[in-house]
Write a structure and sequence with these properties.
The complex is a heterodimer of chains A (344) and B (322). Chain A is of the alpha/beta class. Chain A contains 12 helices and 9 strands. The longest helix of chain A is centred in the N-terminal third of the chain and has 27 residues. In chain B, helix 10 links the parallel strand 13 and strand 14. The chains are: A alpha/beta (344), B alpha/beta (322).
Chain lengths: 344, 322
Amino acid sequence: MLQAAQRSEKKTKGKKTAPHERYLEAYRWMLQTRVFEDKLASLYRGGLITGGVYVGRGQEAISAACGMFLQKGDIFAPLIRDQAGRSAFGEPLIDVARTYLGSRQGPMRGRDGNIHRGKPGQGQLAMISHLGAMISVTVGVLLAKKFKGETGFVGLTTIGEGGMQSGATHEGMNIAAVEQVPLVLVATNNHYAYSTPNDREFACTDLVDRAKGYGFEGYTVDGTDLAACLDVIGGAVKRARAGRPPQLVVASVLRLAGHGEHDDASYITDEIKREPFAQDCLKCAEKVIVDLNLADAETLKKWRDEAAAEVENAVATAQKEAAPEAGEEDWCAISMRHLVDQIP
Amino acid sequence: MSITYLEAIREAQAKLLRDDDRVFIYGQDVGGNFGGAFKATKGLAKEFPGRVLNAPISEDAMVGTAIGAALQGMRPIVEMQFADFSSIALNQILNNAGTHYWRTNIPIPITVRLPSGGTKGSGPFHSQSMESLYAHYPGLVVMTPATVEDAYTMLIEAVAIDDPVVYCEHKYLYYHLKADRLPTEGLPIGKARIAREGRDLTIVTYSAMLHESLTVAEEFANEGLEIEVVDLRTVKPLDTDTVLASVARTGRLLCVGESFPWGGATAEVIARVTAEGFHLLDAAPARINAKDTPIPYHPNLWSAHRPSAKTIAEKARNLLRE
């Protein structure tokens, strides 16, 4: 499974990384994400999180790969199931814990409770729930960088097979190709849009076939295979950075959770759970690590313990912090205070 | 020399492109030699190469792209071909641009130009006035300039504002309205203007309906009745103080707007005046809007669908009788 990754050596965050080192780094982001999201799910079930919890179980490999090849100056516009990619891109766990637990010190200050968080000033855009909307926003950031004469940058944004069916996605993909910006769009087909299976979502043979129609270059990847994800995403990022047309990568996985933690996902059939794409990418990656002896059992345990400690620490910190107070909120939706409408 | 409302919009954009490297214009048919469906960008693509760009028929993606560019410090102006088509971009304008500052502390300085309002023969999809819809949502400034001078200075201000601005320019005024020269400065944004002083009745209005209202005021003056006309200039923020001060002088309020009648800017003005200044009113406040149907094509129907000097005069007369 590692052969593909071993063939290509790519720069990660400015330094040369050997393929097995990158594999292990990505694995650790996946592991931390799994441990963290299991914790969030248990907090949710215990009634300690208000609002929804949305996890990326089963999608950690493709998501981590998305964050691994982006550098300072690049743009990442993640979506609902991208904790692994967000972490790999540089989002601190404490930002996530503070957001979900409603700390006033979090990046969203209690104004948003889960996945819409972002730090646009640091290249991580703040998604909205309306699917496809962030594609053209990413295009705009990249276009402005072109206007300003910057070079060598790339933008990566993600979507699911559900979001691939929206009008905004169509407009966004088209305008990306018209403007010839260095964009990578990673579409992860987890086979369900909430409860709706693929056959009620689209009727084409493979979503990657759409690439040609938009003037993108298209690739598919097995989202359960971390090495393949690193290889294909790494290649797409490299090509976009080098000035090739926008890149579409379609990954295949099964969502190994509900749409959110409120959802028992009873609609996912036993038949689909036996498909190859239904494998757990984290377990697959662990098997590779053990089979190829990339790390010993003791190291794997140490990493798991470290992830658990980091997660506990972030959650404990956020839980101690004060919640936002309505009386201290300025209730002002625009930045130019003198223009605020004083509605009686 | 005389300059039209439309030329003022073009001149404002030329000045913005000349003075500020961050400005670019994005919209359908704005580039090349064409200069836009109404010629509001005529000659600008040639004068400012690479900064006046044709966009595909993708209103959602046009605004999304502008939002992204604004995040990088640019000051995009998006031209909608007609205000009506901005409904395709509602999601980006309301949910993305309008929420961004609140959510992330980073404002989105985009200006979306909406060629608005009715001209005869334009029908249901090329005549809409959407200011009330945009004003309903948080996070946006909504401008409705009624004069050549305001068209010019307010567009320059719109681009300077750090927050998203919906700039509603009226298509009927494009050619009908002329001024001798362009001003160097205008009233502050958010400040209404007393377009005509009076003592018997206050008409609060904006955009093209200002001129219908002024016509009525002139007509009534011949009978010795003095109507005060307030031009809101921006429907959001809404200058409640200026409106209340006028109603305090006249005791009577009529609100006139061209958008559909359910809710909206005129209803908002009446709600504020009755809540804050009930004691100032000598008669129940009234309002006139377009009818609650899609906008008709035929001039006979269209001229009856929108408020006009005739219907405004009737309403004003009833109010003055009370």
